[in-house]
Amino acid sequence: MRLSTSMIYQSGLNGILNTQSSLLSLQQQVSSGRRIVTASDDPLAAGQSINASQNLSMTGNYASNRNVANTSLGNEGNALSAIVNNITAAMEKVVQAGNGTLSDTDRQTLATVLTNSRDALFALANSTDGSGQYLFSGYQSGSAAYVKDPTTGAITYAGDTGQRIVQVDQARQMATSDIGSDIFNRSNPGNTAYIASASSTNTGAATFLAPNVQTGGANIGSTFKIDFAIDATTGDTTYTITTTDSSGTSTTSTPVAYTPGDTIDMGGVTMTLSGAPADGDSFTVEPSQSANMDVFATMDQLITALTAPSQGDAAASASLRNTLTTAARKLAINLDNVSTVQASVGARQNELDALDSTGSQRKLTDTKVLSDLTDLDYYSAVSALTLRQVALQASMAAFSSIQGVSLFSMNK
């Protein structure tokens, strides 16, 4: 076989270049710490590493979202704790106001305390997070949740019904705030209590105790109105009960003789009345779900009732006592509702902790998968690098030896 000089040179050069290329690839791997420098190094592993990197990135994004959600829920939890304390203190003042030995001046002092409590509750309803966003205004986070009418002083909800949602995991979205109207303006959806109230036009001295609910009553869920009438001839007092069911159908009972201290049964809802009603006086008994549960309106009614003189006036004293009874029941239901929301916030924070734990495990798994695919085994790489260096030196030495061979070289 005849070998041309150019073939010998080209073959030697190709061997050196191939060894240099392999050596350069190993040097890049060692310097970068990565087994895959280019996709051509391992196409399958390169594709799998892209998926692993995306999973790791998404895991990090979900973790960031959970931090944001936890911070927002923590701010809400702090505000709700203060709200619970505020309503509890107001309920204590209602009980204190029911003391019959208090004078009008004493009750006005309590009215002042309740006014401060209402204003504090108003401020809490407009709580903000660290960035100035209002917690309880729904999607309208840039504006106050509650506003006060400058003329009447009435406090009303100004937010919307949107609930801010954050994606905290691949298959989990979580509300990071609650709507103000769901905290301050409603009864707990599971509450079955009834609320009684006296008509504002009553002129008699009849008072009531908070109604009781008996399980299985035929008229549970209906609204009742008790109307009193006094016979002009005999002076006998009777009452009728108008029952309105959930469909809006009303029925009125026949007149029943009234005796102070009677417990009136309305078909599963009972209420004890005492004192002497006037002709035309009426009382309403309704489910908490359909009643006006605005805590600010309740406190305004309390303040107005405590400010009005009642000492020595039987009708005014009865009106005050009825207002206190209604307010006490409403505030108790408000407190129950706020406590339920507070428990919901705590449950969501607990879920975030569980998701964080799961996310940390997932991050470790994704990191390991990515490491197995792309990280370099330095021991193997350095050994291979040393071997390639020896091979390059051998190739260069062999080429140098062949280069010196000539048909015309002669020994002297």
Automatic annotation (TrEMBL):
Q: Which GO terms describe its molecular function?
A: structural molecule activity
- Ranges of residues in domain Flagellin N-terminal: 4-140
Q: What Gene Ontology terms for biological process does this UniProt record contain?
A: bacterial-type flagellum-dependent cell motility
GO CC aspect terms: bacterial-type flagellum hook; extracellular region
Q: Name one Pfam family in it.
A: Flagellin_N
Provide this UniProt record's keywords sorted from A to Z: Bacterial flagellum, Cell projection, Cilium, Flagellum
Instruction: List locations, semicolon-separated.
Output: Bacterial flagellum; Secreted
Its chief place of residence is: other
- Domain of life per record: Bacteria
As for family, the record states: Belongs to the bacterial flagellin family.
Output this protein's name.
Flagellar hook-associated protein 3
Native organism? Achromobacter aloeverae
